């Protein structure tokens, strides 16, 4: 069993510094992008997208987005439970996958293994990305790698 973001697989953590461009905006990590979605102000979103790891997480923890489950991409309001939101997150992971060779290599190391994410939260009411949602995305990207070979 591979625990994503732990031990030999910590480079698959959303906390990992991985620069990529999402819809024309520079992100320093997936965590920075995910945490930025909690804020409606564009300049605040951009500042948080430039953060990595725990710094991004701490900025996002301050926002009580879970009271109304509203998230934001630029000036678009998204419900945490909407298909639109899930598509946005898929697109973000796709962008990272397509732009970062080391991310693809890290995913390739998981081929043939069952995946879990012990640090993830399970309740979507209190997290922008559940353990299951994260694992499912890594599995989907891994399948893309396998299919392309």
Describe the structure.
With 149 residues, the chain is an alpha+beta fold. It has a single domain (2-148), classed as YbiA-like (Tetracycline Repressor, domain 2), CATH 1.10.357.40. Helices cover 45% and strands 12% of the residues. The protein has helices at 30-36, 42-49, 53-61, 83-99, 101-108, 131-148; strands at residues 2-3, 20-22, 25-27, 70-73, 76-79, 115-116. It has a two-stranded parallel ribbon with strand order 1-6. A two-stranded antiparallel ribbon has the order 2-3. It has a two-stranded antiparallel sheet with strand order 4-5. The longest helix is centred in the C-terminal third of the chain and has 18 residues, at 131-148.
Class in CATH? Answer: Mainly Alpha
Strand order of the largest sheet: 1-6
CATH architecture: Orthogonal Bundle
| Tally of contiguous helical segments | 6
In short:
This protein is of the alpha+beta class. The chain has 6 helices and 6 strands; from the N terminus they run βββαααββααβα.
């Amino acid at each position: 069993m591979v625990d994503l973001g732990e031990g030999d697989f910590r480079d698959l953590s959303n906390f990992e510094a991985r620069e990529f461009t999402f819809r024309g905006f520079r992100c320093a990590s997936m965590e920075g992008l995910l945490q930025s979605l909690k804020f409606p102000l564009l300049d605040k979103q951009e500042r948080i997208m430039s953060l990595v790891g725990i710094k991004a997480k701490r900025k996002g923890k301050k926002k009580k987005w879970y009271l109304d489950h509203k998230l934001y991409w630029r000036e678009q309001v998204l419900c945490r439970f909407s298909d639109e939101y899930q598509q946005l997150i898929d697109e973000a992971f796709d962008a990272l996958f397509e732009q970062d060779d080391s991310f693809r290599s890290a995913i390739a190391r998981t081929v043939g293994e069952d995946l879990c994410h012990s640090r993830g939260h399970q309740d979507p009411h209190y997290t922008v990305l559940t353990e299951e949602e994260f694992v499912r995305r890594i599995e989907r990207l891994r399948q893309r790698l396998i299919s392309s070979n």
